[in-house]
Amino acid sequence: MKDWIVGIDIGGTNLVVGLVPAEGGAPEALRVRATEPARGPEAVVTDVVRMAREAVREVSAGMDDGEAISVIGVGVGCPGPIDREAGLVIESPNLRWRMYPLRERIEALVDWPVAIDNDANCATYGEWWQGAGKGSSSLIGITLGTGVGGGYILDGRVVHGASGGAGEIGHTTVNVSGRRCACGNEGCVEAYASGPAIAARAREGLANGVQSSLLELVDGDPERITAATVYEAVVDGDPFATEVLTEAARFLGAGIANVINILNPEAVVIMGGVTRAGDHLFKPLKAEVRRRAFKSLVDACSILPAELPETAGVVGAAGVFLAERRDAAL
Questions:
Q1: DSSP string, 294-330
Q2: Domains identified in the chain and CATH numbers
Q3: Cα 243 to chain centroid, rounded
Q4: Around 285, how many Cα atoms within 13 Å sit in the side-chain half-sphere?
Q5: How buried is 20 (Cβ within 10 angstroms: 0-12 exposed, 13-18 middle, 19+ buried)?
Q6: What is the mean pLDDT of residues 143-147?
Q7: Contact in structure between 202 and 230 (CB atoms under 8 Å)
Q8: Cα dist. 113→76, 87, 89, 219, 325 in Å?
């Protein structure tokens, strides 16, 4: 009998669920649907539980006759500071959740034990366990999506900090009088490098009369511009889109330089759809890091694109469940 863990990645944009073999390996029976935070947390929980059950049925149906599967637990990643012991989402600005008992609500609907952690911690753990950071003794993970999250792995364990909020690079300040962030602060990395922030910067430029091919890509409707639209225009050689992405990369690079100077990691892994921009992102980002961080620390650190761009959160959530069970047994 093969052991499996349900991995659940709750993002501000999408929900992703799959089954991960306990010994490691690619997730199976993946399901994806839009999160739609305005529906409220109960609707989101209902969706992920339904998706988990569907995934279990699919994997079970694919087994050889007589072979059973054993689901040993559920790992869940969710944005924002998490109280892991209490199972609470303390605050998630992009989901608009506050003090929500996520573990309790999922456990009320399934027969398996549940572990929860910050979604960026889970994605970082996934890249350390089975992705670009495999084998690293110290790893910083940065997720670029609806928000900008971060995680820190040291000697195979997620560093959580005194209250569970360690690794929130997206809410470090890189411009003291800068753009307003969803968290309420000004000048956060997230206010410049998240997907919505990149799209907003592009729309502002167009509203001010900048000439760009971006409008052609959205049939003249600037409200349809997303970060992916900006990346597409960059690849096509659009100068304004390149300027927007370069600005985001520089602010992100400043944030990464700060973290490298503080923690001296062996690797930094960048996750999220933005990595599809390739050198258009990584060249200005790495240049900003070199400009701001100590040379010896930069030389010791590899800055890498993720190897599990669509599944790091699911893989990592399953890995976090295994790690929590391992630690409880010690």
A1: -HHHHHT-EEEE-S-TTTHHHHHHHHHHHHHHHHHH-
A2: 2-128+310-329 (3.30.420.40), 136-305 (3.30.420.40)
A3: 24
A4: 26
A5: buried
A6: 87
A7: yes
A8: 11, 12, 17, 48, 10
Could you give the CA distance from residue 12 to residue 79 in angstroms, rounded to a whole number? 8
| Beta-strand relationship, 14-21 and 2-10 | antiparallel
User: Which residues have a Cβ under 8 Å from the Cβ of 259 and sit 6 or more positions away?
Assistant: 140, 150, 169, 172, 265, 268
Segment 238-295, tens digit of pLDDT: 999 999 999 999 999 999 999 999 999 999 999 987 788 889 999 999 999 999 999 9
Six token digits for residue 241: 């889109």
Helix ranges restricted to H, the chain: 41-61, 102-107, 119-130, 190-193, 195-207, 214-217, 227-235, 239-263, 279-292, 295-299, 312-329
Helices (H), 208-303: 214-217, 227-235, 239-263, 279-292, 295-299
Token couple for 25:
């390996």
Residue with tokens 């999922």: 106
Distance CA(302)–CA(188), nearest Å, equals 24
Beta-sheet strand order (sheet of 69-78): 28-34, 14-21, 2-10, 69-78, 114-118
| pLDDT > 80? residue 141 | yes
Is 164 exposed, middle or buried (CB count within 10 Å of its CB: 0-12, 13-18, 19+)?
A: buried
Question: Which of 139, 114, 124 is CA-nearest to residue 45?
Answer: 114
The token pair at 187 is 């000048």
Beta bridge partners of 268: 140, 303
Instruction: Name the residue with tokens 């980002």.
Output: 285
DSSP assigned state of 160: -
Count of CB atoms within 10 A of residue 327's CB?
A: 9
Distance of CA 257 to the CA centre of its chain: 19
In order of 25, 45, 231, 313, the CA distances from 273 in angstroms are: 22, 25, 9, 13
